[in-house]
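Need a sequence for this fold. Nothing fancy.
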């Protein structure tokens, strides 16, 4: 749905030009919610702006539904632009208009008539959870509610693609949760393909299906979030999984110590007790924790194993879908 091929973008500066994007290629599947993640200055906003046609790359191609947008002009370009909505970090709202009036504005610009416009505004206000606030002005709302008005305004014209640059920036944790709930509903109920940028792993954990990790303008990794987590050495796993801190002393009482990633209800709930009883070994969780990616529970545990058949237990745990690896400083022959 969104394909970016070999995108390079630089900005002039007094010394050398700043290379904001270096040969970046990404693929966002239709209907997916793709998170572009990376530290400040990594190039996330520049990438979003290039896809939104707000910035012209030095080299490379942006395709929307297979169409090379740089090759379009006139009517075709306007049609494509209309399908792409942008939620900017601090978009100005019309201060003198109500919440409903703000959401209605883009429909008025398109000449959508009264009853149809009212129906669509009603649908959108319900989607963003602001039906009760329809008659209020932006100044009467919290920052998070204003962000949802902007989201409603972006969605009013039924876009196929939504680009959201740091959608939770400057919004408190509870209100950020409400913004993410709306984005989740937009994906589920409207099937809109979304690309969002964020520095916040919690945003990815909560709603992203796919992720691209940017560092200093380079894409260092991309793919399905759950697939990437399955490799504990991946950038995504290191950035998004619960961290593990244990001492040598904690590990020393076990015959064997490994780190394991368990994905999904069956794996998280049943695998370790089952291995312990089948092979008559002790399997203890000595570090790490449990989190959720969307609805999927994911555990990142440091395990201590004790007993005669720890090797067989580890092999069985692996065969049943867990991702197990040795801890470099703590020994365990079977996990190597
Ligand atoms: N219009 C511009 N003119 C000059 N340099 C720019 C411009 N826009 C971005 N840059 C530079 O390009 C690099 C990437 O910036 P960008 O805003 O894309 O990063 P980011 O990952 O979105 O960062 P943040 O998370 O802080 O928003 C940075 O070094 C930034 O200073």
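Here you go.
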């Amino acid at each position: 749905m969104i394909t970016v091929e070999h995108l390079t973008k630089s900005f002039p500066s007094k010394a050398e030009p700043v290379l904001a994007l270096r040969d970046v290629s990404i693929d966002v599947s239709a209907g997916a919610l793709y998170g572009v993640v990376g530290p400040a200055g990594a190039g996330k906003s520049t990438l979003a702006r290039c896809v939104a046609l707000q910035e012209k790359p030095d080299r490379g191609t942006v395709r929307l539904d297979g169409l090379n947008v740089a090759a379009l002009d006139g009517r075709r370009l306007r049609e494509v632009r209309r399908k792409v909505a942008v939620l900017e970090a601090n978009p100005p709202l019309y201060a003198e208009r109500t919440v409903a009036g703000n959401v209605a504005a883009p429909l008025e610009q398109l000449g959508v008539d009264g009853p149809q416009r009212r129906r669509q505004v009603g649908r959108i206000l319900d989607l963003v959870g602001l039906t009760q606030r329809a008659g209020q002005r932006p100044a009467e709302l919290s920052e998070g509610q204003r962000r949802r008005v902007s989201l409603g305004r972006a969605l009013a014209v039924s876009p196929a693609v939504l680009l959201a640059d740091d959608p939770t920036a400057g919004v408190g944790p509870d209100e950020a949760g409400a913004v993410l709930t709306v984005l989740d509903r937009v994906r589920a109920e409207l099937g809109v393909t979304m690309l969002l940028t964020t520095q916040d792993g919690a945003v990815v954990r909560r709603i992203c299906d796919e992720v691209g990790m940017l560092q200093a303008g380079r894409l260092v990794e991309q793919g399905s979030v759950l697939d990437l987590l399955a490799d504990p050495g991946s950038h995504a796993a290191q950035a998004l999984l619960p961290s593990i801190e244990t001492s040598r002393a904690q590990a020393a009482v076990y015959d064997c110590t490994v780190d394991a990633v368990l994905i999904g209800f069956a794996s998280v709930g049943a695998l370790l007790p089952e291995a312990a009883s089948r092979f008559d070994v002790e399997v203890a969780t000595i570090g790490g924790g449990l989190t959720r990616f969307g609805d999927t529970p994911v555990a990142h545990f440091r395990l201590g194993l004790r007993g005669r058949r720890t090797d067989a237990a580890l092999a069985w745990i692996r065969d049943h879908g867990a991702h197990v690896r040795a801890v470099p400083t703590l020994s365990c022959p079977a996990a190597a």
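For context: Residues 12 and 170 are 29 Å apart (CA to CA).
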